[in-house]
Amino acid sequence: MFDDPADFVPESQPSGSLVPPPRHPPTAIATATPQPPRPPVSAVPPEPLSLTRLLRRAIDRALDVADDVADTIVSATGIGPRRGA
To answer: How far is CA 9 from each of CA 1, 2, 12, 41, rounded to the nearest angstrom?
Structure first.
């Protein structure tokens, strides 16, 4: 029909408009959000704080040393009742 594509002119339509058809936004679909996964539960209970354990051992050791010193003083001076007697 046409030798040159630049000569092509589409036929006009009596009800046609010069603007493109309106664009409708896509339909939004609501979905439920799944709950986040729970953290894994350890089969082994957590160990007590190492600082607490360290303080307990230090206090026990200090009291044992103080008791030994007191026993030595009592036996050296002869004051008070002797232990184990």
So the answer is: 12, 10, 9, 73
